[in-house]
Specification:
One of its GO terms (biological process) is mitotic spindle assembly checkpoint signaling. It is found in: Nucleus. The protein has a single domain, classed as HORMA domain (Cell Cycle, Spindle Assembly Checkpoint Protein, Chain A). The chain starts with 5 loop residues before the first helix and ends with a strand. The strands form four sheets. Strands 9-4-5-11-10 form a five-stranded antiparallel β-sheet. The protein has a two-stranded antiparallel sheet with strand order 1-8. A two-stranded antiparallel ribbon has the order 2-3. It contains four helices and eleven strands.
Length: 205
């Protein structure tokens, strides 16, 4: 049986802390991808220090408002263990065809079937180190990802369990790329929820 001092247990991730870490990761990942892939002009982003690395956050009021508006619902669904994956699609503005898709798949470590764990066994700083590694890898992806064809916009889809509900959210066709090449990036675990990151893009063959 695992044991720890009171101080160690105090530093362990709780469900609430796990959700906050994942939301923070989503926020910086989405902004970083939009910046690194040139979806919006470079001058519409500002550099910030986060987890000891330089990240870029959008200054565009519409993007800021969009992300701010979706975070509360994502938080609710994460706390309930309802999210299966979050998909960010970079799509051609004219044809709406996806050129590149980023998937963040979530696996919950349930205490009992259908019941989320309330207390983890991992130190917060350890989780932050793992998140930093994933964010670094996302930034480095520009070295192998092909150039996007034409001007792109983004589409964000949240894939949930059937009983998730959610006013203002509806069913849509999943984003899919024909002849896609998929690359799995690093994962991180809060000891309550695991996040696995993938990027897929059109194969040149």
């Amino acid at each position: 049986m695992a044991t720890g001092t009171a101080q160690e247990i105090q530093n362990f991730v709780t469900l609430k802390g796990s959700v906050e870490l994942i939301l923070d990761f989503f926020n910086y990942s989405l902004n970083s991808i939009l910046y690194q892939r040139g979806v919006y002009p470079e001058e519409t982003f500002k550099a910030v220090q986060h987890y000891g690395i330089t990240m870029f956050i959008s200054k565009d009021p519409q993007i800021e408002s969009y992300i701010k508006d979706i975070l509360p619902k994502l938080k609710e669904w994460l706390e309930e263990g309802k999210i299966k994956k979050l998909v960010l699609g970079l799509c051609d503005v004219h044809s709406k065809e996806p050129q590149e898709c980023w998937e963040f798949r979530i696996i919950n470590e349930e205490a009992t079937p259908g019941q989320m764990k309330q207390q983890g066994t991992k130190d917060v700083k350890k989780v932050q180190e793992e998140i930093r590694s994933v964010l670094r890898q996302i930034t480095a992806c520009v070295t192998f990802l092909p150039m996007l064809d034409g001007v792109c916009s983004f589409d964000l889809q949240v894939h949930t369990k059937k009983d998730a509900g959610g006013e203002g959210w509806g069913d849509v066709a999943p984003l899919a790329i024909q002849n896609a090449q998929e690359v799995q990036l690093r994962s991180f675990s809060t000891s309550i929820q695991n996040v696995h990151t993938f990027v897929s893009y059109k194969s040149s063959t």
